[in-house]
Queue: 2 jobs
Job 1
Amino acid sequence: MDLQLSERKIKILQAIIRNYLETGEPVGSRTISKYTDLNLSSATIRNEMSDLEEMGYIVQPHTSAGRIPSDMGYRLYVDTMMEEKDRELTELKEMMLEKEDKVEHLLRQVAKLLAANTNYVSMISAPAIHTNKIKFIQLSRMDERQILAVVVAEGNVIKNNIISVQERLDDETLLKLNILLNTHLNGLALEEINLGMISAMKHQAGIHSAIVADVIDAIAQSIRAEEDLEVYTSGANNIFKYPELADQQKASEIINTFEENQMLTELVQGTLSDENSTGIQVYIGNETPIQAMRDCSVVTATYELGEGMRGTIGIIGPKRMDYDKVVGALKTITHQLDELYKNRT
Amino acid sequence: MDLQLSERKIKILQAIIRNYLETGEPVGSRTISKYTDLNLSSATIRNEMSDLEEMGYIVQPHTSAGRIPSDMGYRLYVDTMMEEKDRELTELKEMMLEKEDKVEHLLRQVAKLLAANTNYVSMISAPAIHTNKIKFIQLSRMDERQILAVVVAEGNVIKNNIISVQERLDDETLLKLNILLNTHLNGLALEEINLGMISAMKHQAGIHSAIVADVIDAIAQSIRAEEDLEVYTSGANNIFKYPELADQQKASEIINTFEENQMLTELVQGTLSDENSTGIQVYIGNETPIQAMRDCSVVTATYELGEGMRGTIGIIGPKRMDYDKVVGALKTITHQLDELYKNRT
DNA sequence: TGTTAGCACTCCATCGAGTTGAGTGCTAAC
DNA sequence: GTTAGCACTCAACTCGATGGAGTGCTAACA
């Protein structure tokens, strides 16, 4: 048997997958024979299907049932046969015109929209601040022993931090510290802050060097706290629309995973670190790093809100999800998010 | 038939409910006859049960099945027969010692803990800021046309707000505005800010009165934005542990409700506005304002984090939830949250 | 040599009949 | 007022029969 896929085999495989994506039912040889332009009898199709099964692209749930795509089959489909559908998400455009000024709200809205449009579950991670530049820092005194540090980063991401200090601070000192911090740190990405700078600042702060240390610690910490980054999900109940995911065992597991968004961050990290051409990644079944989602497929994309502010947006659905549509939708949406930022500045 | 419940009927009803809460199965006359100290034959129990059914406290899922409590039966139980179990939530104490400084994180933790301990779904609303006093306001300039307003309220609740202004502001003016706002507004609850004050401030601001208006608008808006208050839920997948809630239709509906936390706020509002003695409210089945939860019971409690900062904490579970335990746990937890605040200040 | 028709075979899904067991309501006796 | 006894009901389960979709194989055909 030739291990190479003939043209005809590809056509048949494609037909099988397309059909299965639509119906969710195993597809038999007669269906293919009838609804393709191949003009082959079901018997011939059967032979070919037998080959395809042996090659590992399709499987039979049981003898005397039709075939369904294997993970490998889906993979081939996604890699080589997909035809993206460009879906217009007009609602998104409208929504964005409203200029949600809270990034968080915007993202939630996007997630919601995406879930509603695709009938899958959507997730979206807030853009990671640590790739981002500090716009300014503002220290204010709250009371005797506490000061409030506000860090504003490029893209108007705001972090608040309450710092407890040992010594009392008068207004003048606070002002000086403010200036000191801002002159040194403004415009820097958070990774760019190094020990040399810190010690220089400490030196300049003189007797207040302890506070500088505290403040920088707090800033660093507030950044690190962001490491377990927020991930919003939407449309979790959509999984009930797909019988293969809707049984209690699986549904419970999946829902739980969404709640423990800890796990989702793994996915996000994976997507962010990966630098492939399109920025879109597809995890089929067991390819996903999340055990609970072995019966799902996950499609993720990276969006950018300008200068290094990157987040991840993703769709989780059954393995038989409409990849064409999903990839198209994700592309559209990331593109529109990019646009949004451009218009904003 | 006497409409008054005899001592014996009460005992039987109580036994039925207790048993049903434990097993989740309809309970028959023989069970009661055996496992109570009433020493009555099953036939007698049957007669009594027949009465109880006629009175509406119990129902039969079908002829030839045992009885289960009706909403009315549960109601009677909760109102008069419950024996709170004081559960020690030691983990909570430990956790609180760590002094999570972000209120949000603390609340999420509490929700998680509560869900894990009860095996029901928990929800918790962030404390409403609008019952709260302004500690200070800090305006900083971000760039030409934008200023950042940080409002810190009693209890260290922090709101950020980016305000776009028409005119350019120099540092001096900003400083003046800062002082102006703080002298007028510090220590006030947000409802206490009235038009008189605002016009006074505008007057003092002179040519910058437009900005004062902008700022106050923004503050008011940031407060109003808080109206659709955050509600965190945890343990959603616990509903799958109760067959009466685990079927697709219902589970989907319930999960969806959690996501649209819009709905939950209704519940929260209801609890917050109600001023009954214990602060604990029990909604059984159809009593709940949320249609999707007609097969659930919801128990809510109000917690306080000092001076007017109140939020709601709640448990959602099947109607046959262990009310004794849940009410106990909620009391413990709200009490400990109160304690926490005391130790903090 | 590739394609097709035909046929036996497999296996799931569905349906109905029969069985079981828990539980009731009623009646008559205590 | 309480209890024993009995007929009755009904959901849940088991079991076998039936039907249909689909396959694999073989033999014939172009």
Job 2
Amino acid sequence: MARTTGSDGGRTEAAIRDAAINLMARFGYEAVSMRQLAAEVGVQAAALYRYFPTKEELLFTLMREHMEGLLAAWEAVRPATDDPRAELAAYVRNHIRFHVERRHSTHVSNMELRSLSRDNLTAILRLRTAYEKELRQILRDGTEAGVFDVDDIGLTAIAIIQMITGVIVWFRPDERLSVEEVVETYLAMTMRLTGAEKPGERAHVHANA
Amino acid sequence: MARTTGSDGGRTEAAIRDAAINLMARFGYEAVSMRQLAAEVGVQAAALYRYFPTKEELLFTLMREHMEGLLAAWEAVRPATDDPRAELAAYVRNHIRFHVERRHSTHVSNMELRSLSRDNLTAILRLRTAYEKELRQILRDGTEAGVFDVDDIGLTAIAIIQMITGVIVWFRPDERLSVEEVVETYLAMTMRLTGAEKPGERAHVHANA
DNA sequence: GAATTAATTGAACGTTCGTTTTATTATTTT
DNA sequence: AAAATAATAAAACGAACGTTCAATTAATTC
């Protein structure tokens, strides 16, 4: 046989992306074969090469779009304020919501960096760095304004991202907690971590020596 | 050729473990072939099978010993006190020190769970759960004693472990920060996260409404 | 309705994979 | 020094891998 009835390039490509994200999130990039992926899509392996030149290019496309989507989502919700607390809250909320909604592609983007060629890796890391830089800037602004109490900005930024990305390891949308409850709990922990004063709050804790 | 001069089973097995941890941490379990591993050790691939029956059993052994080592290290340093703050501090310090010292096996243990068979996975997760349970107990004790202010114990425990394990992603021992500096910074963040009162401290922050 | 383009199949390519088998040599035991 | 055992090499197994190529059919254009 050859071209099948009702076949459509756009739909097939979307199906490939979808299946690839699911399979690679579950079994890992290396463990998923092009034949397995094709079977999931419902085509022969050769058909995949009409849409992606190599397996790695497929992975790279998925990761790049994930990172670009994350940055775009942040740009879209970034508040027009100069209160670092509001900015930090928006950052954390966006991060968790975005990642919970896209657990599988987050998993792939976080776990499969080592399967990229040098150039592709560099491109992804550049996007990641740009995203983390936003958080560092918020922490710096807040520290200078005196509303955060952060010792090491770079270290704190990494710790926060690590913590709030960890949600996707355990969170499943149908459990006792809703997404919004989780978001607020993590936000509260983040605020504590940065020593953020709540709006209306004036003083830090003082030890009674 | 066959048996080589000076060959020794004990040394070869140790060399296999060592090379396996390094290679698998760098390239991932699936991406490392038995031939590549053998070449790193300096033997033929067939020789590996004298020490480990399958590739997966080798992985499982490495992961099991890592987790057992982590639990053993904690048992060894667990303080004989009922102050949850001291216990939490000991837990965090031990966790970071252990993981920084064993970056590669930590990486393997965290990343390669999906390459295990069901039974082997269950065994590793059992160890992991036992380890996390220790932290939850500390948080629970501290919350009941009123020295911690934790909203959701399970969620906080996961967030803390995620945060303090994240050290190995970026920390390299020869940089501007020493291990002990990093340990203390993360400890401070953990204490803030849990709302821990410092010894000698009496009150929490109060909002000025 | 003929020509063109899009989408896919089926077979095949050479390579590498984890693993097994058999033979061979070094070392230890008797 | 002979016998037994430990440690390895060398070669081979069938299966699976990513990828390519030629053929074929569906849909679209002219």
